[in-house]
Amino acid sequence: MSNKENIRLLAAVMFADIVGYTKMMQDDETKAKKLRDHQRKIVDDSILENHGQVMQYYGDGTLSMFGSALDAVNCAREIQLKLFNEQPNVPLRIGIHIGDVVYDDEGIYGDAVNISARVQSLGISGAVMISGKVFDEIKNHPGIRVEAFGEHELKNVYTPVRIYALADEGLEVPEQEYIHSITGSNRKSIAVLPFVNFSSNIENDYFSDGITEEIINTLARVEGLRVASRTSVFLYKNAQKDVREIGKDLNVATALEGSVRRSGSHVRVTAQLINTDDGFHIWSQNYDRELEDIFQVQDEIAKEIADKLEENFVIAENENLYEASTQNIEAYNYYLQGLFYWNKRTPEAIFKAIKLFNEAIFNCSTYTNAYSYLANCYTYLGTIGHISGNEAFEQAEKHANKAIELNNSRADSYIALGYVNLLFKWDFDQAEANFRKAITLEPDNSEGRQAYGFFNRVIGNYPKMIEQAKAAVKIDPLSLPALLELGRSYWAINENDKALEIFDKILELDPTFRSALEGKCMVYVNKEDYENALKEVKKYIKLIDGSNKGGSQLGYVYAKMGKIEKAKECLEKVSKREKEEKDINLTLDYALVYSAMRDYDRSFEYLNKAVDEKLGAVLLINSFPILDELRDDARFEQLIQRIGFPRPKMVAS
Predict the structure, then answer these.
(1) Total-model pTM
(2) Are residues 407 and 377 part of one domain?
């Protein structure tokens, strides 16, 4: 075994090489070597002046490391201004990324090195390419200009990387099309932006949202076409943002904008396809129909878009892209309204969605999609304790099974059934089978990956948890639930800084997303930074209606701070809320606060009560760092055995 010391650190990595060096050597070896030597001298001097260190020379290239992204960027700019704009001209390209590296006597290694090389490969002579992480570090420094190229898939890099080029005077900047041609990441891609409701009745929002969602689902069936997910595009609803910026954000070549104007039984749908590189319209079309023909309208729009995007898409003359699960227009209307409320993801909205999905099923008893979403609604309410477990999960199981009976090729139904198996029946084998089935049916289903990641978090398979959570975000990078699962996964293994980064990204997208504030609070508790934990939990409570809500989170933080009397006051609020909302189950709230108060007897009393009641959320005790102080108690192992899963293999922080 080697005795050399490995040091792990965060560093800015700069990768540089000469464009076309191999051909130069073939044409004039002496000249090529002179250019290489000149390049090395300039690079060495500039790196030294900017507090960096050359880690490795390789032929015509240099691998260097810096303590800050700003130093690396300043150094790269200086090198290019000297080499590309002065004689002898050296056609150099540079790439910079910041991340974890392993450093020893022989050099540096790690993902940051690989990513910097991939970022550099997107450049042209005289260009400095940087990753999104580098941009985030330097964006507030005056005098630095960049051009954004959106997210791109890079070889051997798991998640897409945001790409930028320095655009200062004297530097070269690639064309957008050049980057796209190298990565191939967005030529056949589209974002269907939320259609605008131009009807006189604002309640018809559900209808325009439904049109958007169905066109997304339709286009997703076109082989070879990448379609931005619903959760990503709906973040732009009512947002005044240039379509070119949206194209960069979502890394798509085209965007579909549209509007819906409904009057009685008549509907006019207007759609226009836009090139996101320059904002020019590719085509636009109006569709005037009676409402009974809306399915045909959706199919016509989808076909026309597909034709415009790629002439080689083969769509048979009589083939319908759109596969409606009902032809009953009244059922369809109720379904669209149900989706509108389901996507709000608040308890009060979910109760409305249940009524509407039931109306859809009343009008069409074979409506597969309505059964699937109805199951999801009951799963959601049962999980958060707003309906008793027996009632919620029995309904969820019934409706999920009905959806599978009607159409056994949809992932959503298996996801809902998997949650029933996991959170209500505690049947881990069957839960995993259903989550795997969902992913097999739809590998690019972000919710399926989230569900399987959550399952692995529950059973303590942390490597698989992280893998699936990352996959969910890769599929749907702007999905708040996907990001939330990834943040919680990092929290579970005490990767606190990574968890904070994810929660901050969520709050940048939606400052009112309560679960991210709660997540930040718990991360700060992990770090024993209780003042910041208190700030986050107070922000969280401000977003909740009701004077007695949020008491358990606040009580937990006060208890960790040693303010036991304040913690007891919060427990009184929990008790009052329990009396006010008779159907709600707050057993675990008591257990967590008593644990923080170091009243372990009462904490275990409530934990055992949660197991007696088969409360689904108690399954998370394995992956709650905030319960670490209980793990050495013999009673914790007894809980693990009562639940029926083995104690997880904990991952060192």
Answers:
(1) 0.60
(2) yes
